[in-house]
Design brief:
Elements lengths: L1 E5 L6 H12 L2 E4 H11 L2 H11 L6 H12 L8 E4 L5 H14 L5 E6 L2 H9 L1 E3 L6 E3 L7 H4 L10 H15 L2 H8 L2 E5 L4 H12 L1
Helix pairs in contact: 2-3, 4-5, 6-8
This protein binds adenosine monophosphate (AMP).
Adenosine monophosphate binds next to helix 2 and helix 3.
Length: about 210
Amino acid sequence: MRMILVGPPGAGKGTQAVHLVERFKISHISTGDMLRAAVSEGTELGKQADSYMKAGGLVPDDLVIAMVIERIGKPDCTKGFMLDGFPRTRPQAEALDVELQKAGVALDVVLQIEVPDDLIVARITGRRLDPDTGDIYHIKFKPPPKDIAGQVIQRKDDTEEACRARLEKYHSETAPIIPFYAAQGTLKRVDGNAAPDEVSRRIEQVLG
Ligand code: AMP
């Protein structure tokens, strides 16, 4: 199974990805996680990506494309993969297509999680992360248990200002990849305006 998860920031991609990779026994490739790791390790890629990420902008295509192509070429990806947060621009989608064609494989499904903008801001600004486990919480919708409440952190790009910049980028840069996949016949849509379990149920239904 080779799949892509697409949706605005805060749509629940990370949460749903956890269930999906377990269900299909595929590798989870989150470009946001990979870039954050590069930044905290201080690699050359991390140094280049840092300022774009802090501002809620997109890291340049050539950097992200090279990172993903290297990653999907690793042996664990032969059994399939889930791309979470990539592609985010039309050139990224096209570069992925070329790479998959070269490898003689194809995407099975592009799953779009749809959530209205006004909900996204509330979701993102309240989002907190446990840096030890990567578990995601929300100060209102899913408060962290007492014993870890003191250690959860807010991502640097989860402020309201950066969130609005990311939403704008989503509409201008990422939304145009949707018709590209619709034309390929791989696109499936899910309404993400519900609690995570309900969204998972809807995804199951759509995937059949
Ligand atoms: P995410 O965790 O998916 O929300 O990604 C966090 C940030 O990493 C984004 O706001 C971008 O700055 C950067 N990023 C992640 N994936 C990509 C991508 N495919 N293309 C460009 N920038 C990306």
